[in-house]
């Protein structure tokens, strides 16, 4: 008999099914056991009566034991999922020891037992949505004629400044784990023109915020022959496509996680372009301190995000706050042609950082000097500007940031299976 997954059980009422899964909850009387079975797709109550083969095992098996059973599906209004399986054959595949995770565990303990906690209903739902998000990112780029191409994770250059670089020994030479594919991607645009990649990026973030990981998945795109406004159109299209795909495929899971599906429904282009200078004006009106050149902190983002009911871009940041590769704004040279895409709400924040790229080698060198970076290490990057440089732009989106915001998750670590943060590299 073929296996039925629990989500499909409603289609099998009155029929005999084979289920495989793990014991989620169990309760036994003298001559009956109620075993709530879970598989990746859901849970269902299974009733095992005395006399059925395997009844004794059903009585003694602890939660998280793995099970294969056969039984008949009945509709039952009283059962939590609306169905019940009356078991005719019950077999334990692997008995479980006493499961160390009980109700109401501390966050630290759940992180120590992460390899078992990944089985939880909450993480299972988030990971399923995360999978849909990654699929939707690929679909979007491929539908727009992008090539997928990879760049190395080991590099000798900082893309986003030296302070968050992870240093490593590389056969007697100093190297780093990459912060972004961007610099290599810029070289590749002179070949493939429209490219994207989803890969891990690494940041030695000393900050313990709800939005920072040391290793995160980075969806990045780089495009030749486009200006910054064209890049913003790709970005708002990408986020909107991902959100609408999640609603289509996972509305139920989103609601169970407490996501704001009404707000998500509104996520469609265009997104508002808010100049950095206007952020300062808005902060003044709200009585929140901020002056030209300041980063936009979590506090300011929260004050601002009340003004918007869908993501928005903060554009044209002061040049000195942003990395060396950003294109100077020809209309206002103290700013750059860049944008951070900000999602509203507590679980929101910066989803995307992107810009048009500086093509003038003299300006790049001056920016590197201003950052205190030795231009000597950027030899091959400068070559891109020497051999047929063209206008180009790109951006990077944090996959866990996006997942956190869409699912309305309190802490980013629950948006990746095995989080790496300043104080955790186990399991
Ligand atoms: O703004 P960032 O630093 O931009 C870049 O790395 C560019 N080189 C991207 C590009 O233009 N190709 O990072 C981009 C995004 C952020 O907006 C955020 O979503 C995510 O990456 N991000 C992080 N996510 C989780 N943990 C961290 N420590 C993150 N740092 C950045
Ligand atoms: Mg950024």
Explain this structure.
Helix content is 31%, strand content 26%. It is elongated. Helix 4 runs antiparallel to helix 6 and helix 4 packs across helix 12. By secondary structure, the protein is of the alpha+beta class. The model has no long low-confidence stretch (mean pLDDT 97). A hairpin with a 2-residue loop joins strand 2 (32-39) and strand 3 (42-49). The protein binds 4-amino-1,4-dioxobutan-2-aminium adenosine-5'-monophosphate (4AD) and magnesium ion. Magnesium ion (MG) binds at residues 340, 350, 353. Residues 340, 350, 353 line the site of magnesium ion.
Going by helix content, strand content and strand pairing, the class is alpha+beta
Give the low-confidence spans: none
Gross morphology: elongated
Strand order of the largest sheet: 6-10-11-16-15-14-13-12
Order of helices and strands: EEEHEEHHHEEEEHEEHHEHHEEEHHEH
Mean pLDDT: 97
Rounded to the nearest angstrom, the radius of gyration is: 26 Å
Report the biggest beta sheet as strand number plus sense, adding barrel if it closes.
8 strands, mixed
How many DSSP-defined strands? 16
Contiguous helical run count: 12
Cofactors and ligands present? 4-amino-1,4-dioxobutan-2-aminium adenosine-5'-monophosphate, magnesium ion
Query: Between the first and last Cα atoms, what is the distance in angstroms?
Result: 37 Å
Q: What is the beta-strand fraction?
A: 25-35%
> Considering DSSP H and I runs of 4 or more, what fraction of the residues is helical?
25-40%
């Amino acid at each position: 008999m073929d296996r039925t997954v629990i989500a499909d059980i409603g289609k099998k009422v009155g029929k005999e099914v084979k289920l495989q899964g793990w014991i989620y909850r169990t309760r036994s009387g003298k001559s009956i056991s109620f075993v709530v079975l879970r598989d990746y797709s859901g849970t269902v109550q299974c009733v095992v009566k005395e006399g059925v083969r395997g009844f004794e095992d059903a009585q003694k098996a602890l939660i998280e034991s793995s099970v294969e059973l056969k039984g008949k599906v009945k509709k039952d209004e009283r059962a939590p999922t609306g169905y019940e399986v009356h078991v005719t054959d019950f077999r334990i595949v692997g008995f479980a020891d006493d499961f160390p995770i009980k109700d109401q565990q501390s966050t630290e303990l759940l992180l120590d037992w992460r390899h078992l906690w990944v089985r939880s209903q909450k993480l299972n739902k988030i990971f399923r949505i995360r999978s849909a998000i990654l699929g939707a990112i690929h679909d979007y780029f491929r539908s727009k004629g992008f090539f997928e191409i990879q760049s190395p994770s080991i590099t000798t250059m900082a893309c986003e400044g030296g302070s968050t670089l992870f240093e490593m020994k590389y056969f007697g030479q100093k190297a780093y784990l990459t912060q972004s594919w961007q610099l290599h991607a810029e070289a590749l645009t002179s070949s493939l023109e429209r490219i994207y990649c989803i890969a891990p990026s690494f940041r030695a973030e000393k900050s313990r915020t709800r939005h920072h990981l040391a290793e995160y998945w980075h969806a990045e795109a780089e495009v030749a022959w486009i200006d910054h406004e064209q890049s913003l159109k790709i970005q708002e299209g990408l986020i909107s496509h991902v959100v609408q795909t999640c609603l289509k495929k996972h509305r139920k899971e989103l609601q169970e996680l407490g996501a704001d599906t009404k707000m998500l429904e509104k996520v469609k282009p265009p997104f508002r372009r808010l100049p950095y200078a206007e952020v300062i004006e808005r902060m003044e009106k709200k009585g929140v301190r901020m002056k030209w050149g300041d980063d936009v902190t979590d506090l300011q983002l929260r004050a601002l995000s009340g003004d918007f009911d869908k993501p928005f871009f903060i554009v044209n940041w002061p040049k000195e706050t942003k990395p060396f590769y950003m294109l100077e704004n020809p209309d206002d040279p103290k700013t750059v042609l860049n944008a951070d895409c900000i999602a509203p709400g507590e679980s929101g924040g910066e989803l995307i950082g992107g810009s048009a790229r500086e093509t003038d080698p003299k300006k790049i060198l001056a920016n590197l000097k201003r950052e205190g970076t030795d231009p000597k290490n950027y030899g091959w990057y400068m070559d891109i500007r020497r051999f047929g440089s063209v206008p180009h732009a790109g951006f990077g989106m944090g996959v866990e940031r996006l997942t956190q915001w869409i699912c309305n998750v309190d802490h980013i670590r629950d948006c990746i299976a095995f989080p790496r943060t300043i104080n955790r590299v186990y399991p």
